[in-house]
Structures are given as structure tokens and as C-alpha cells.
Amino acid sequence: MSTKQTNTDLFNYHRRNTVEVNVGGVKIGCNNPVRVQSMTNTSTMDTEGSVAQVKRIVAKGGEIVRLTTQGSREATNLGAIKKLLEKENFTVPLVADVHFNASVADVAAQYADKVRVNPGNYVDTARTFKHIDYSDEEYAEELVRLRKRFVAFLDLCKREGKAIRVGVNHGSLSDRIMSRYGDTPSGVVESCMEFLRICRNENFDNVVVSIKTSNTAMMVTTVRRLVAVMAEEGISYPLHLGVTEAGDAEDGRIKSAVGIGALLADGIGDTVRVSLAEAPENEIPVAKELVEYISARAGHTPIAAFADKNFNYIEPQRRKTNKVGCIGSDQVPVVVSGYCTKDQNIAPDFLVCNGTITDNSGADFITLQYNDITPEVIEKLRSSENCVIIAESNHINPVAELRAIVHKLMSEGVGTPVIIRRTYHESSVESLRIKAAADLGVMFIDGLADGIWIENEGISDEQINAIAFGILQATRTRISKTEYIACPGCGRTMYDLQGTLARIKAATGHLKGLKIGVMGCIVNGPGEMADADYGYVGAARGKVSLYRKQVCVEKNIPEEEAIEHLLKLIESDRTKE
Predict the structure, then answer these.
(1) What are the respective helix, strand and coil percentages of the chain, to the nearest 5?
(2) pTM of the entire structure?
(3) Contact 206, 163 (CB under 8 A)
(4) 389 and 418 in contact (C-beta within 8 Å)?
(5) b/e 308-340 (16+ beta carbons within 10 angstroms → b)
(6) Kindly report the CA angle at 511 between 569 and 327, in degrees rounded to 5?
(7) CA distances, 20 to each of 32, 125, 208, 223, 344 (Å)
(8) Tell me, what's the pLDDT at 290?
(9) How many Cβ atoms are within 10 Å of 505's Cβ, its own excluded?
(10) 85-135 tens-digit pLDDT
(11) Quick check: 208 and 240 in contact, CB under 8 A?
């Protein structure tokens, strides 16, 4: 699929057109603001505890709150939670999160304002990672069974006036989808589309849709693919955005801002949830700042630019560039900063002093904005083998203008490497993380940049350097440390997620290049472990199972011994290498 086929304007901000969905009085999509939401991590049977947490989320600005509903008891208790909230004058819409049992979704529709169902386990059995050979006729029969059950649920939601979310997680694709499509973006999209086609055919439009994965680049390109397929089939439901299992602290914020920001920049997304392995209310300020930052681009001064005809928006590849020292070609993106350190994992490739690169290593750095790229400049770039462009933008839509620079070079057949330089004026590191990740991450996901240079007076060089390396780590274009794929926790969580994640980080943070999954339960745990080297998964209260990739290697370890077992597993594997 090409950029033209997606109908996406890469250079001017416009919100995607959607139908309007009503979730308990809060409107999503169409001309409504992008809504921010979170999810409780209390037991849904703990009425007072859940109410207290919902109130904290709302106090931070949350507009919708989701609660887990493992069974009919939890789904029914949403009614008690809602009544107590209303008694205290809180009218926030509540969403039931349903997995594994379609009957629970039926119960939840009587009490919740919206019901999230997961196509991977709504009718299909829980994923077992087994390949099943379906004939076309057998596969069609499975779809008939799916349709019959799902239509009954839609009829109930129509009668009750409730909304639904069709929420696909890469980590919980069904064996049926995996057997037919494999662990691919196409499989993720088709898992979603099977349900959306039924909604459309049943004239049920109170639908929000989401596709989530812990791999940020895959999340972005898979949602782009979904948007393109929906457009081809005349479907325009609003989109819920999120990077699942993003983690906590700096990494969780950068990873979420990279993934969500890349899509919001193209007008894709109508409600967002930043998934942090922290208290749920901490997610809201991050989501709000991200949404407000990008929404401010509406109505900006147009940028007259055209996409290179060979650029593939759905499956972007890294731009082919000249090799200039350590910059460009197939080398990892470089980091430019003022931070001097002996730690080679996070040492910048080029040091800066007073805004100037102190060692050019033979490169001829040329600073350019979009309007500077004249025919004369193009000819100079063509004739020089040592040129490196420092691309800058002061436009309110920096993503668009930086894209315009690189697309102009591609269209002209110029292979000069490009380092993206952005100067911010943020007073807090938190704001800089969010905005820089949202602006610059997409440039690396789309393969348009060969380096990163962030400036912000008043923020330390060490912090800026960490943000730059964090953005490259989040886009998986340069790995400098261990990545933690950590879920935010919910009522299904089997242990103290935040404390455990902190202890695992302390024990494994020195290991470069590993991906470790820290999962509260089995809903997405084993599936997301396909993208992790090791998994630490809640198996029961006080019990943990350890995974190597998707394979469970130790079951039901006492929680107090599990981290030690994880370290032994990693050390044993490294000894064998």
C-alpha cells in the first residue's frame, strides 16, 4: 500500500473523519476532542476501592475509566460502583474489560457504558500457540459461529444503548488467526476486521476500535494498515490508541509518546490511554499533555510538499543514504548531545559545545530548514560525498516540515544523511520527554532520519542525552539498554507489579539488549512474550511462571524466589552462548 492509497496528508494536520460514538454521554470521534482515559488496577469486587481510584483518575482529568471484569460477579458489581459514583456526583462513563467469556460481555452490557471485547478470545478459545490447518470451508464455518454469537451481543447493546470497543492485542491473537495469517500485521488487522464487518452489516455504529502491541513501530504501522483497510471497505469507526505494556517512568512515557504521537500527528486517534506500570491516575497528565500538544496543530499554516512516490507509509523502509563516517547507510542512528560519559552504551557520537559540534570527523554539516532547499542547494548536496544535513523546523507542526525536507531529498534522488535537530523551551523534563518523543520518534519509525539532536536550555545534558537514546530505543533503531515490556496492571494482576518491576530493573538493568516481559497475568502475557526474550508472568496469587520467548520453562514459583530464578535462567542461557 502506498501513501496515496492511505489518503493521508503527511504534511498538513487534519483529523480523520469518523462516525460519532456515545459512551455514557461522552462523545468520541467526529468533531469531538481526543478523549483521555485510564484503567483501574483494583479488584472490581472492591467497590469502595474502585470508586476511590476512579475518582482519582477523574480528578486528574480522565474522561473515561475502564475496569476489569473477569467474570459475571465483577461485571455485575460495576452496577454498584456506578451507583456509588453517581451518589457522589461522579458521572464518568465506565468501561468493562472482557476476556475469555462472551457471556460476561452480555452481563457487562447491562451495567457498563461500554464493553471492550478482545477478538482473540471472545469466541475463539484461549490461545495455545498451536497451528491448526483449516480448509476454506472450515474457516468459513468458524466465522459463521463467531457472527452468530457476536450479533446476539450487538443486539443486547442496541437495546441497552451501550457502546463497544473491539480491542485487538497483538499478544492475544487466536490460534485460528495465527494459523491462517501468522504473527503478522495482516493477521492483527484481519482479527479486527472480522468483528467490524459484522458491526457494519448489523448497522451498529456505536463502536470504537483499537490495535495494540508492545512493539511501538509495529503498533504504528499496523494501525495505519487498519485505517487503510477500513477506508477501502467504507468503515469509519473512531480509534482508541495505546502502546500496551509500555513500562514505567521515563521509558514508559517515551515509548507511549512515540507510538501514540506518531499516529496523532497524522490525525489518527480519537481517544488515548497511556499504559504505565504506575498508579493509573499518573497516566492522565501524560495523555493530556500529548493530546494537547498535537491538537494545537489544527489549522496551521499549510506546508506545500509532496510525498516521494516510492515511500511506503504502511511498510516504511529506511531511506538509502550515503555513508559519512559513522553516519548514514545501514549504521545505527547517531546521537548528538553535550553529555560527556565513559559509558559507551549511552555516549553520544558527537559532542556539542555552545550549540556547535566539536568534532566533525570529516563531515561537512549543513543546517537546513524546508524553505532552504533550493535547486542550488540540491546540486551542492549531489556533488559532495561528505555532506550531512542538520534538519531543523520551528513550525508548529514540526513532524510535517521535517518530513517535507526528507521527502524533497528523496524525490530529488539525493542520498545525503539527515540528523534531526529540534530546540525546545520546556521547563520540565517530563514535558520534554513527551514532546520530543512525539515529534522525533515517527521520523525513525518511517526510516527518514540518521541521527537525533535535542536542545533545551535549563534541562541537563545528561537528561537530554537519555531522552535521545530513549527515543531510538523505543523505535528499536538503536538498542542501548534492557527493554522492559511491563503491563500497567489491573484487577487480574497476581502480584505487586510496581514493586516487582523496580526490583527486576535493579537486578537486570546492566544487561544490554535484552527484552524482559513483566506481566501481571496470562491475558496478554504469553503472547507479548513473543516479542521478549524472557517473561515474568503472574500465574496465581503469590505464584509466578517464567518464560523463554513463548515457552514456559518454570511454573508456579513462589513470588519471593522468582527474580532469583529469572536471573539464573538468564545467566544459564548466556553461559551456553
Answers:
(1) 40, 20, 40
(2) 0.89
(3) yes
(4) yes
(5) beebbbbebeebebbebbebbeebebbbbbbbe
(6) 140
(7) 8, 32, 9, 19, 51
(8) 97
(9) 18
(10) 999 999 999 999 998 889 999 999 999 999 999 888 888 765 555 667 888
(11) yes
Find how far residue 19's CA is from the centre of its chain.
23
Q: How far apart are CA 237 and CA 249, in angstroms?
A: 32
Rounded to whole angstroms, the Cα distance separating 10 from 399 reads 9
The bridge status of strand 94-98 relative to strand 114-117 is parallel
User: Of 460, 434, 50, whose CA–CA distance to 256 is shortest?
Assistant: 434
Q: Which residue has the cell 464455518?
A: 141
Per-residue confidence band for 2, with pLDDT thresholds at 50, 70 and 90: very low
Question: pLDDT tens digit string along 220-274?
Answer: 999 999 999 999 999 999 999 998 765 657 888 999 999 999 999 999 999 999 9
Distance CA 534, CA 553 (A): 10
State phi, psi for 311 to the nearest 5 degrees. -75, 130
Residue 288 C-alpha cell reads as: 493530556
What is d(CA 288, CA 292) in angstroms, rounded to the nearest whole number?
6
Looking up cell 476511590 gives: 52
pLDDT above 90 for 524: no
Tell me how far apart the alpha carbons of residues 136 and 452 are, in angstroms, rounded to a whole number. 49
The confidence score (pLDDT) of residue 360 equals 67
Confidence band (pLDDT; 50, 70, 90) for 540? confident
Which residues share a beta bridge with 497? none
Residue type (1 letter), 497: L
